[in-house]
Design a protein that fits this description.
Layout: E1 9-12, H1 20-29, H2 31-34, E2 39-43, H3 45-55, E3 61-63, H4 69-73, E4 77-81, H5 97-113, E5 119-121, H6 127-132, H7 140-152, E6 159-163, E7 168-171, H8 178-184, H9 187-203, E8 211-215, H10 230-244, E9 248-253, H11 261-264, E10 269-272, H12 275-286, E11 291-295, E12 301-304, H13 321-335
Parallel strand pairs: 1-2, 1-5, 2-4, 3-4, 5-12, 7-10, 8-9, 8-10
Antiparallel strand pairs: 6-7, 6-11, 11-12
The protein binds 1,4-dihydronicotinamide adenine dinucleotide and the ligand NCC(=O)COP(=O)(O)O.
1,4-dihydronicotinamide adenine dinucleotide is lined by residues 19, 124-128, 140, 292, 303, 306-309, 311-312, 318-319, 322.
């Protein structure tokens, strides 16, 4: 099925020793039943042939240019080749892992910015494998913003949104050690994050006036400063500023009572102050179908919510539902994504 944008989705290789390659093969094999939009993967065609053979999957693989991907998708898994031979075995990253994973992201972003792909969907990377290779960004989210800045010359603040029908969450601070969270939190960061969330939920998700619930940092949202001053001095003024701009924001709300079913019915997205405050509830409620979306970029990027799962890589046990949800959501969002020229 060709996405409404008329363009295929660009799926990255991710960590080749992780579950991304086998999920990619599995999703292509079941593409019709799953109604997945046409995609191509950026990687090494021979690596995908070998992995299909290893897993006993009957998946023809064809090396293509992005422009041929939609026409190829019905017959074979389209692979836009990188100039890197990928040799990593399941569960065992090797010297080809980081260069191939990074080159694949770069190529997918170049394609979406050049209008060859409708959106970028990323397979999981192992962050520590990339760090060991000298990769300087904490994760995809920050790297994609850097690539967007290089392409547009415009400052880009990326926002991580984890999306599911049950719950949507945004960690205001993203990949940060817990000890650094308080130092990084600021009124300006919360306001800018809230603005991007409100704008992108309206423009891309079609929620006319998104309701933002903003979590406190401290137990009981600080008890008026008695259990931490940040909620009173940083979060509350940021919420007031967002409201003064016409954004439907409430908070700071105690985080421990923000995620039960009745509370969730009262908002479209919860802005949380740090990574695990946001990701624990959504991975508890929707691990198998949650989608990671990067807001604030001049293109659509989605990803499954899980990581590389080295413990089950190569066993065929990995569940592809989150990747399927990421592909379907990417096609939906890119159908009414602003163009590069109008974004930001
Ligand atoms: N978007 C990305 O690139 C992400 C990358 N990661 C990376 O993944 C690596 C491993 O992270 P972990 O915290 O261990 O999380 P993980 O999600 O890889 O694994 C956690 C547990 O869930 C299971 N699991 C994960 N995905 C599954 C699937 N599709 N089907 C069945 N079971 C599944 C795994 O087997 C494991 O037991 C880290 O290096 C991290 O940086 C983690 C999250 C997102
Ligand atoms: N825990 C989510 C995560 O680490 C994904 O990060 P990113 O690589 O999408 O920036």
């Amino acid at each position: 099925m060709t996405p409404a944008s008329g363009l295929p989705l660009a799926l990255t290789l991710g960590e080749p020793a992780g579950i991304g390659p086998e999920l990619t093969l599995d999703v292509w094999r079941r593409r019709t039943a799953l109604h997945v939009p046409a995609f191509y993967v950026v990687g090494d065609p021979d690596f995908f042939r070998d992995r299909a053979r290893m897993l006993g999957l009957d998946v023809p693989v064809k090396s293509v240019a992005a422009a041929e991907a939609c026409a190829t998708f019905d017959r074979a898994l389209p692979v836009v080749p990188l100039d890197i031979q990928v040799t990593a075995q399941p569960g065992v990253p090797d010297g080809s892992s980081a260069p191939a994973a990074i080159a694949s992201i770069r190529r997918a972003v170049a394609d979406v910015l050049a209008g060859r792909a409708g959106a970028v969907v990323t397979n999981p990377i192992a962050k520590n494998v990339l760090y060991r290779s000298g990769f300087a960004e904490p994760g995809h989210t920050e790297f994609l913003a850097k690539l967007a800045e290089e392409a547009t010359g415009r400052k880009t603040q990326p926002v991580m949104l984890l999306w599911s029908p049950e719950l949507a969450v945004v960690p205001v601070t993203i990949h940060l050690p817990l000890k650094d969270v308080v130092g990084r939190l600021s009124k300006a960061l919360i306001i800018e994050t809230g603005r991007i969330v409100a704008r992108d939920l309206a423009n891309r998700f079609g929620i006319a006036r998104p309701r933002l619930a903003i979590a406190g940092l401290n137990p009981h949202a600080g008890e008026n400063g008695a259990l931490g001053e940040e909620d009173r001095d940083i979060v509350a003024p940021a919420v007031a500023a967002l409201r003064s701009e016409g954004i439907d924001a409430v908070g700071p709300l105690p985080a421990d009572t923000l995620f039960h079913a009745r509370a969730r019915a009262g908002y479209d997205v919860a802005l949380c102050m740090y990574h695990d405050q946001a990701l624990i509830p959504i991975k508890t409620l929707a691990f198998d179908h949650g989608v990671n979306v990067t807001l604030g970029l001049p293109f659509v990027r989605t990803s499954p919510d899980h990581g590389t799962a080295f413990d089950i890589a190569g066993t065929g046990k990995a569940d592809a539902s989150s990747l399927v949800a990421a592909l379907i959501l990417a096609a939906r969002l890119s159908a009414h994504a602003p163009t590069l020229a109008t974004a930001q």
